[in-house]
Amino acid sequence: MRIIGLSVALVLLLAGCSSNWGWYVVNPMTDAGSSNLSFLLSGLGSTILLSITAISISVVVGLLIALPGLSTNRTLRSINRVYVEFVRAIPILVLILWVYYGLPQVADVAINVFWAGVIALALSDSAFQAEIFRAGIQSIDKGQYEASHSVSLSYSDTMRFVILPQAIKRILPALGNQLVYMLKMSSLVSVIGMPELTRKANELVVTEYRPLEIYTILVLEYLVLILIVSAAMRWLERRMQADERQ
Amino acid sequence: MQSSTVEPIIRISDVSKYFDDFQALKDVSLEVALGERVVVCGPSGSGKSTLVRCINGLEHHQSGSIVVDDVELGANRESLAAIRAKVGMVFQQFNLFPHLTVLENLTLGPVRARKMAKSDAEDLARRYLERVRIPEQADKYPRQLSGGQQQRVAIARSLCMEPKIMLFDEPTSALDPEMINEVLDVMAELASSGMTMICVTHEMGFARRVADKMVFMDHGEIVEMSAPETFFSAPESQRCQEFLAKILQH
Ligand SMILES: Nc1ncnc2c1ncn2[C@@H]1O[C@H](COP(=O)(O)OP(=O)(O)OP(=O)(O)O)[C@@H](O)[C@H]1O
Ligand SMILES: [Mg+2]
Question: What is the ipTM, given to two decimal places?
Fold first, then answer.
C-alpha cells in the first residue's frame, strides 16, 4: 500500500513540475473528467476476466503437458518437448492475430475477441506452466512416490493427494509471476479490439488527444492491479506455510 | 524355527537384478514362511535394499521369479497391485507425507486404495497409533515429531493397510541413538504378534531377540543363511565372520 501511495505521489510530482501536463482530461471534479475516468476504468473487468480465465486454462493445460514430460517413456517425453519448444517460440502478439484471424478459417468456427484472446494467452502461457510444473514435480523426493506405492495408491491418487499438493506449494511464487505476466500480456489483446484497459485508453486518446495523461493513468491502473495481485500471492504463500507450522 | 513343510508365503528363486551393466542381485533365492522373521544384514552396497525393494515391486528384477502368497510378481499388471496390497514397507527415511497430519497420513491409503469410509479409516488409524504408542500425536504434522515418532507413524501407516508381510529397510539407521529402541520395541511387538517380517538392519541385539532366520549378503549374493544361534556363534563364511566381528565391536 505504501508503494502505491509513493508512486501516485511521484506521478503527481512530475505533473506539477511540467507545463506539458493537462490533468483536466481525467479530473474527477469535472463532469467530462470523471466520465473519462470511468470510461478508462470500465476496461478493468475485461482485463481481469481475460487474465483469470486464460491462466486457469493454462494451468490445467500446462499440468497435462507437464505429466508426459516426467515419464520414463521417450515418446511421451518428446511430446512434451515438442509442445513446449513450439509454443514457446511463437510471440504472443502473433498468436493473438493468428487465433483471431486465422483459426476461424481453419476450424470453421466463429470466435469472438474475448475467446480469441483467452485461447492465445492460455496457449502461450501453458508452455511456461508446463515447465514450472515439471520442475516443481521433479523437486519432490522419490521417497514420496515409493511411500504412495507401498500404501497402494494409484498413479492419479499419488499425484492428486501426495505429489501435487507439495509441488504446488513450491511453485506458488512462480505461478504468481505468471499471473502478473498474464495481466500485462492481456494488454496485447487490445489489437483485435478487446475492450480492456489498454484498448479503452487508446480509444480515449483518439478522442481527447491527451496521450501523456491517459497513458499515465493506464500505467497506474496496471501498477495498482499488479501490486494487489502480488500482495495476495504473498498472503497465500504465508497461509500455506502456516498450515505446516501450526 | 518354522517347519520346512509349510508352504512359504514368499518364494524368491534365482532372482537377478541389473542396474544397467551393474548386477546388484546375483541369482538370489530365499523362502520365507508365514509368520517367519528374517533379518538381512551385510556391508553397504551388498544389495539388501534392492532385494526387499524387488519384493514389493519398487524395483523390477530381470530374471528369476518372486512369488508372494501365490501371486507371481511381474506376471501381469494386476499382480503388482495384488502384491503391494499384501506387503507393507517401512523406509530408512520414513517418507511420511509432510503436508498431511499424522491421522491423514494413516487414512489416505485405507480411504483411497481400500475404499474404506473415512470414519472407519480414522478408527483404524487411531487403533494403530495406540499400538505404536503415540495416540496423542494424531493431529500433528510429521515435522513436529521426533525421528523415532515419525518412524513409528510410518509403521502404523503401513499397518493400516493390514498387510500380510512387512518389509523394513534399515528403519533405525536415520535415527539418533536414543530413539532407536522405541522403534525396535514396536517392531519386536509386531514380530511377537505373528507378522511375517523381513528386516534389513544392523541392530544385532534386535536380530538375536526376534529373528527366526539370519541372512548375510555380500556383492549381490546371499552368502550365509542360518538360524541366529548358529549365525552368531559359528558363521561359516569368512566374509560373514569379518562382517560380524566389525559390527559387533560397537
Ligand atoms: N537406482 C540405482 N541405479 C544404479 N545403481 C544402483 C541403484 N540402486 C542401487 N544401486 C547399486 O546397487 C548396489 C546395491 O545397492 P543396495 O542399495 O541394494 O545396497 P544396500 O545393501 O542396501 O546398501 P546400504 O547398506 O548402503 O543401504 C549398490 O552398489 C548400488 O550402488
Ligand atoms: Mg540399503
Answer: 0.94
